[in-house]
Amino acid sequence: MSRRVPDLSVYLVTDRLLARGRELVDVVLAAVRGGATVVQLREKDASARETLELGRALLGRLRPLGVPLIVNDRVDLAMALGADGVHVGQGDLPPVVARRLLGPDALVGLSITGPADLSTLDPAVVDYAGVGPIFPTGSKADATPALGLEELARMRPRLPVPVVAIGGINAANAASVIAAGADGVSVVSAICSADDCEVAASVLVRAVRQGLASRK
Ligand SMILES: Cc1ncc(COP(=O)(O)OP(=O)(O)O)c(N)n1
Ligand SMILES: Cc1nc(C(=O)O)sc1CCOP(=O)(O)O
Ligand SMILES: [Mg+2]
């Protein structure tokens, strides 16, 4: 297997509708200055063409910085963009199909919403899991019930790939999510809606470090 999973510690998922009127590229670049390590383009209201344009603009800025861009749901757009990978959920194109289309070097992430999903993750195909929602979230209309930290900790040993936790994660609870076994925190509103997206990302970086230190 030739791909290497990048640093997933602060994984930004975009939502320009939550960005308080700011340009998405500005929000993303501020987050990266603050220490965001991965960006997922997730604009549920955008047309394919709009997503392609947003993706091109982001990729042009992120690639020189070495920050991977993952596309939510749309394997076709990930291919068209030459993005670093795709994130698929349990109702999206199956990971094995995404892998076949994108090839061996692409990153393929899969959502895990509870113990019943664990058997759907083949580590030969999937590079990382997005486990959630951990806490209630207002950023995903069709989110499943919150799992909580104890369920995350129970599931973690059964996941043979790196794990990012998602759903309701913020500066106040990020360290606890890492302490429960996640390798990274994935956030929408904690960065996109923050007064200062750079500061918000840097606070999450510190919280992740604190969570890692608590595991030693
Ligand atoms: C990192 C990460 N984890 C989980 C999700 C959710 O994906 P999915 O279940 O397909 O839901 P949508 O994001 O498509 O609404 C994610 N996007 N990223
Ligand atoms: C995109 C997404 N996926 C989720 C899942 O549980 O799979 S929760 C979610 C939204 C997370 O937004 P916020 O950080 O603002 O709570
Ligand atoms: Mg999806």
Structure description:
By secondary structure, the protein is an alpha/beta fold. It has helices at residues 24-34, 48-62, 75-81, 95-102, 148-155, 174-179, 189-192, 197-214; strands at 10-13, 38-41, 69-72, 85-88, 107-112, 128-131, 163-166, 184-187. It has an 8-stranded parallel beta barrel, surrounded by 5 helices. The two termini are 30 Å apart. The model has no long low-confidence stretch (mean pLDDT 97). Bound molecules: the ligand Cc1ncc(COP(=O)(O)OP(=O)(O)O)c(N)n1, the ligand Cc1nc(C(=O)O)sc1CCOP(=O)(O)O and magnesium ion. The site of magnesium ion has 5 residues, from loops.
Mean pLDDT comes to 97
Total number of β-strand segments? Answer: 8
CATH topology: TIM Barrel
Small-molecule binders: ligand LCLJCK34, the ligand Cc1nc(C(=O)O)sc1CCOP(=O)(O)O, magnesium ion
* Shape by Cα distribution: globular
Series of secondary-structure elements, N-terminal to C-terminal: EHEHEHEHEEHEHEHH
Structural key phrases:
8 helices, globular, binds ligand LCLJCK34, 8 strands, binds ligand 3NM, binds magnesium ion, TIM Barrel
Offer a quick outline of the entry.
This protein is α/β, with parallel strands linked by helices and 216 residues long. Helix content is 36%, strand content 16%.
